[in-house]
Design goal:
By secondary structure, this protein is α+β, with helices and mostly antiparallel strands. It folds into two domains: 19-118; 135-439, ABC transporter involved in vitamin B12 uptake, BtuC (Orthogonal Bundle), CATH 1.10.3470. Helices cover 62% and strands 10% of the residues. The strands form three sheets. Strands 1-2-3-4-5 form a five-stranded antiparallel beta sheet, covered by helices on one side. Helix 6 packs parallel to helix 8. The protein is elongated. The relative contact order is 0.13.
């Protein structure tokens, strides 16, 4: 078992040294091929590779499925994502460069048009060998892939809410702002390693995002919430509202009002299955987001079950006075819990920034409120309930977006919360009471 684990770690380390194919560079190079080949040609892409300096892409293609392989090579103005089609500065076909005037007309009247974007011969890679499934199964699978990223973000933040509420019975509304702070930290970390292999960019962004949110959370918790640990719930709630406003305004003043954009990583779509002409697609960053949330949830569950901190947390949550008599420091448990919950919020900000490609201070309120809805749906104070509530909310939003007008999606989500509170105020994993008898 140990040898297998070492071999797996070695393979991951070797994969981290490989350079990712820049999606937009490859797309621009593929888009040029239909315009440079005869009208009767049916371009088929065999392989794609990025140059070592990150400023070029080589595409091996055929004019028809049974034709001979040919080579197209594109060079760009700078490494990374091309912001405009004019960033393409050189194009060679089978080693022969096309002249400047032909390249100008190609960029101006083909690559910059909707027809050029629609003519991409392989936007999803090789799809002819995808498994065939029924249309209903394909549609359901696509909606499941669509729901994975927001569900992961809701799950991480809902777990943060449940950690604090399960310990002291208080709701901290500042986790949305802490997630935004973690998103800014992740954006800064990604900028430090721009152009590097994806593993290094994601590692640096994730570490900085979690560290920034955990530090902010520990400091704000010690300064604003620790003195109110035994105060009535209304005072604590008002303090968290003030903390949210303070953190959001601090982000606005220090980071600016415009969102911070991050170069896309692992965002190339690929096909998973098909039902006739309908192709079920996803991307590596979507799967990465779901994987991070799943790994964090499992690690949190194991830590709360087997670690010393988990035992102290459970003892304090059951009876804080008795826990203090047995030598557990209430202030230390509270600050550790707040730091851990803030780290989960920072992790949510990290995956949000890397998946959507942007972070802004204005997302704090909506993000925090949606995660609170997920925590209440599952039963706030229960970590498994928070994960289940996030799964419910993410699936519900994906289903609503697929069947109804998306403008009313948030209204429907909050209406679902009102319905759950009316029928089962404790949530799905909360105390089981006969709420129907109370209605009667």
């Amino acid at each position: 078992m140990r040898r297998a684990l070492c071999a797996l770690l070695l393979l991951l380390a070797l994969a981290a040294c490989s350079r990712e194919l820049e999606t937009d560079q490859a797309r621009l190079c593929r888009m040029a091929l239909p315009a440079l080949r005869p009208p009767e040609a049916a371009v088929v892409i065999d392989s794609q590779a990025e140059d070592g300096d990150g400023r070029g892409v080589s595409v091996v293609y055929r004019d028809r499925p049974d034709g001979l392989p040919r080579l197209a090579h594109c060079r760009y103005r700078r490494p990374g994502r091309p912001l405009h089609s004019t960033d393409l500065v050189e194009l060679t076909l089978d080693g022969a460069p096309i002249n400047a005037s032909r390249l100008f007309f190609l960029i101006r009247f083909w690559l910059a048009t909707p027809d050029g974007r629609a003519a991409d011969p392989a936007p999803l890679g090789r799809i002819e060998n995808l498994p065939q499934i029924s249309p209903r199964a394909a549609y359901g699978l696509q909606q499941a892939f669509n729901a994975a990223p927001p569900t992961a973000i809701y799950a991480l933040l809902a777990a943060a809410y449940s950690l604090i509420y399960g310990l002291v019975g208080r709701i901290n509304l500042a986790f949305g702002a802490l997630a935004a702070a973690g998103g800014y930290g992740a954006a800064f970390g990604a900028a430090l390693w721009v152009g590097a292999p994806p593993a290094y960019v994601l590692l640096c962004a994730g570490v900085l995002g979690v560290a920034v949110a955990a530090a902010w959370g520990a400091v704000s918790g010690a300064a604003a919430l620790l003195p109110l640990r035994d105060a009535p719930g209304q005072q604590t709630l008002v303090a968290t509202v003030g903390l949210t406003i303070f953190l959001s305004e601090l982000l606005r003043l220090t980071q600016g009002e415009r969102p911070n954009w991050v170069a896309p990583i692992l965002n190339a779509p690929f096909g998973v299955a098909r039902a006739g002409d309908f192709i079920v697609t996803t991307s590596a960053d979507s799967l990465f987001t779901a994987g991070v949330a799943l790994a964090a949830g499992l690690a949190l569950a194991l830590a709360m079950r087997w670690s010393r901190f988990g035992r102290e947390w459970r003892a304090y949550a059951d009876d804080s006075f008795a826990a203090a008599l047995f030598g557990i420091d209430p202030a230390a448990v509270f600050l550790k819990t707040f730091a851990l919950a803030s780290a989960l919020a920072g992790l949510a900000g990290f995956v949000m920034t890397m998946f959507y490609g942007a972070v802004g201070y204005e997302s704090a309120a909506t993000l925090g409120l949606k995660a609170l809805v997920a925590a209440i749906l599952g039963g706030i104070g229960s970590i498994p309930g928070a994960l289940i509530g996030a799964l419910m909310l993410g699936g519900f939003e994906a289903l609503w977006s697929a069947m109804f007008r998306i403008e009313y999606r948030d209204v429907a989500s909050y209406a679902l919360l009102a319905l759950i509170l009316a029928l089962r105020p404790g949530g799905l994993m909360g105390p089981s009471e006969n709420y129907g008898r109370r209605w009667a």
